[in-house]
Amino acid sequence: MLDGLNAGPTARGQVSRRSGAALAVIGTKGAPGTSECAASLAERWPAVLVELDALGGALDLRFAGGPRRGGLLELVRAAGSADGVVGELLERWLADADGWPPVLLGPPEFERDLSELAHPGAVSNALAALRSHFPLIICDLGFLLAEGMHTGPAACIHREALLSADAVVLVIGARGQQIGHGIAQLGLLLGPLALPPERVFVVVNGCGGPASVSRQSLELTFAAALAEGGLAVNAWLPWDKRALARTARRGYPLARAHLRGPYARALTGLLDQLRSAVPGIARAEASF
């Protein structure tokens, strides 16, 4: 699996000079399709997909029943150990399935291990370890960034991943309540987290789907909401009924399920934007 990504393990005691890029994909309340977007992006690149949804992600459900020999928690512990050597262990920890990129799953009982994963530096050290072995890491994050006036352990995990990433993709659903949640989430990314606008890419998912707002109304709403931050919608991902049906049958990521479908074509446009706008991604592709 590692050889297929052209990223063999680093020898024990040897520090790798390679550094891959990290992309964080985050959504909002209301299930806007974040995990599908993250999985489809990872499937299109030589990447490893990391489940970092501290609320309990959808990826673990997709791989339910398969053998588990380790995952995110084991990587966090190894990266924080004295020698920090993880290369020879990654092969065992990565989940594999037909049509999927290599996946590093979260712990089976995320809630039980939250405090360990939320320890300052735990997530960033784990991602740094992955960067030395893969050209691109795509993190599937949970939406929670704050809990009232406090930042609980789940929010701490998500925030640390966002701040460690080279770029952030915010997935917003095209239905009424999802739009409001998305605009509020963008405010957190640009406000309290102070992410540079040039590192934030906005995706509207489910356009033309059931109960979605019309494309014209969406364009007007987001033009006004994003203008203050100097942002625009980077990709409009359409509702792809055929891809959804094939995903349900075969279990593939959405873009893989219908390679020439409208969702996959729109995602290709986002890939091109990320490649040209984020130097770390282009360097990673060229150097690995």
Automatic annotation (TrEMBL):
InterPro entries attached to this UniProt entry: P-loop_NTPase (IPR027417)
Q: Name the domain of life this protein comes from.
A: Bacteria
**Name the record gives this protein:** MinD-like ATPase involved in chromosome partitioning or flagellar assembly
